[in-house]
């Protein structure tokens, strides 16, 4: 094999790379940022798609974030690919923050902020037996209502940041291309 390593990677190195990659975690953020900026759509479409994906990530419907993001992007006339990329904001590292915040905000909005509705609830048993009617009132309803304000806020912030970022990226790219063409024309190529 031409691209095989000389010495195989051991299990300790594999675990270390899974927890903290050799090139850092910011490399993934830059990669997905460039990928979003290079989508061939208007800056509004890219920004609306990313914002729709981020907003869909706040919902408690784990496993359906991509579908919800794409549907919301379609309604907002955003890029569907950008919506799928935007759902990456909700991941196993951010789920505890998202779920606890939406649950607390939902309880506050429903009028019982100090009450812990899920304390006498065997959540694992309800999910295992799929009793969603019993799961709706104490868990899903507060989370669904509570996800709306932070999802809207994050959507607006992400839309503005993405719109300005994509517009700036494309302007700089256009200037670099014009400078290369100008230098090539001066060189007589």
**Cα-based radius of gyration, to the nearest Å:** 22 Å
On the 0-100 scale, what is the average pLDDT? 82
Helix content: 55-70%
How many β-strands, per DSSP? 0
Number of helices: 9
Could you give a short account of the major beta sheet?
none
Spell out the helices and strands N to C: HHHHHHHHH
Instruction: Characterize the overall form.
Output: flat
Broad structural category: mainly alpha
- Ranges where pLDDT stays below 50 over 5 or more residues in a row are none
Strand content: under 5%
> Kindly, what is the distance between the CA atoms of the first and last residues, rounded to a whole number of angstroms?
41 Å
Task: Describe this structure as you would to a colleague.
The protein has about 190 residues and is mainly α. The chain has a domain at about 45-165. The protein has nine helices and no strands. It has helices at about 10-20, 25-35, 45-55, 65-75, 80-85, 95-110, 125-130, 130-145, 150-185. About 70% of the residues lie in helices and about 0% in strands.
Topology of this protein?
Layout (H helix, E strand, L loop, with lengths): L10 H9 L6 H12 L5 H15 L7 H11 L4 H7 L8 H16 L12 H7 L2 H15 L1 H40 L2
Short description:
It is built from 9 helices and no strands. The protein is mostly helical and 189 residues long.
Structure characteristics:
70% helix; single chain; 189 residues; mainly alpha; flat
């Amino acid at each position: 094999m031409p691209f095989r390593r000389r010495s195989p990677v051991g299990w300790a190195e594999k675990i270390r790379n899974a927890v903290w990659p050799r090139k850092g975690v910011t490399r993934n953020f830059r990669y997905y940022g460039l990928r979003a900026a290079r989508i061939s759509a208007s800056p509004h479409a890219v920004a609306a798609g990313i914002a729709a994906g981020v907003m869909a990530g706040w919902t408690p419907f784990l496993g359906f974030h991509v579908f919800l993001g794409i549907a919301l992007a379609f309604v907002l006339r955003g890029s569907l690919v950008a919506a799928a990329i935007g759902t990456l904001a909700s991941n196993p590292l951010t789920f505890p923050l998202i779920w606890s915040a939406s649950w607390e905000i939902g309880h506050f909005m429903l009028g019982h902020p100090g009450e812990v509705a899920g304390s006498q609830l065997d959540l694992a048993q309800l999910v295992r037996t799929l009793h969603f009617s019993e799961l709706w009132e104490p868990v899903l309803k507060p989370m669904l209502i509570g996800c709306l304000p932070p999802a809207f806020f994050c959507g607006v912030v992400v839309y503005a940041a993405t719109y300005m970022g994509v517009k700036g990226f494309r302007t700089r790219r256009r200037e670099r291309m014009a400078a290369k063409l100008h230098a090539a024309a001066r060189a007589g190529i």
